[in-house]
Amino acid sequence: MTTSETNRGDPQTLRKPPAGRRLLILCSTTGYQTRAFVEAAQRLDLEIVFGSDRCHVLEDPWQDDALPLRFEDPKASAERIVGHARNNPLDAVVALGDRPTPTGARAAEALGLPYHAPAGADACRDKFLSRQRLHAAGLNVPNFARFSLAADERRLVASHTPRIQFPCVLKPLALAASRGVIRADTPEEFVSAFERIRALLRTPEIQVLREETSNFIQVETYVEGTEVAVEALVDRGRLSVLAIFDKPDPLVGPYFEETMYVTPSILGAETQAQIRATLVRAVKALELHHGPMHAEVRINAQGAWILEVAARSIGGLCSRALRFCSPELGDGISLEELILRLALGEDVRSVARERAASGVLMIPVSRVGVFQGVEGIDAALETPGVEEIRITAKPNQKILPWPEGSSYLGFIFARGESPGFVEQALRAAHAKLSFVLASAMPII
Questions:
Q1: Rounded distance, CA 48 to CA 56, Å?
Q2: At 435, which helix (H) or strand (E)?
């Protein structure tokens, strides 16, 4: 596996933050996204402190001196962080993923550090609260309703409640990456989808998180249109769009596993301006103040519709598809480094995405199985434009497709002269890969 590296140059060395600054990273895993932020922090000579809910019983089970926290209780977790900071001052807080963001917001507020408002972080963690705020602000959002897991899904359909209109989309309130999201076109499909999401939310994996949002299912009117993902920063209330990703594969259901992001977008300038203007209003409605933001938007004849806004950066390894540059900082700046500089209060307004088109293919899961290996990597890497292939599935790992699944088999990255070239490169490389999945034996 190969990857290309960009020479950063002398300006980067001169612009490093002062030594001795301490960064708090809030995370639930020690996966590849965490490692990317650690690498960025090391490049900036930052001392790293972890805060994690990985284990509440053992003292420092991962041997990384992490503060043991409970992200399902943001207030108590923030208080613990503030107590730690009395003798160990912190200069910045960064939360990785959705779950730690409410804790990060409360801790930063108490410490006087720039961050999203706690109310905004809470709203982005709950699709029902988010919809309420966006609707109240007059933004385009689908009709929505929230139902308890204990509800009788057959009676819901039989009652002909106006809150259920077909086609509709059923979804959990807090799961990410379209996990548990199902489209229903008929009453029968609605019943099946409700039962399936209920079963997912009642699994031990979800219940152990102890989140109130896991007790509800949201139902929304299906929104037709072209879907894009937007990566952005909010700098003290000011939105700065870093990239608009096109999603070349149509996402029409019944499940919504995302497979490909390509940037820059080929949408017209007027449409892109409409997306930006809509997100500016969303930032205000959701009380997002300072930090990364990731959004999913659909565009149709009625305008831009916000599907989701998250108070965090793009997930998984997808950030590797983005590189930035600026006259002061040089070339090849990673998204993680940009986020850290923003958290430290640096002026990053001059930073822009590189000129080359780029993209990532999140290798989809076709069926349930146990991962055994992959063939064709060398041939796929020879595809013009392909820079890197990362297989993230582990040997003997059980693989689940969407909507129950949440992990891709890996990622393919490409760069080139145009979005069309990048898309073709990603598809060609994927076609050369062959994954070996053994049958998953049922547990008796």
A1: 20
A2: strand 434-438
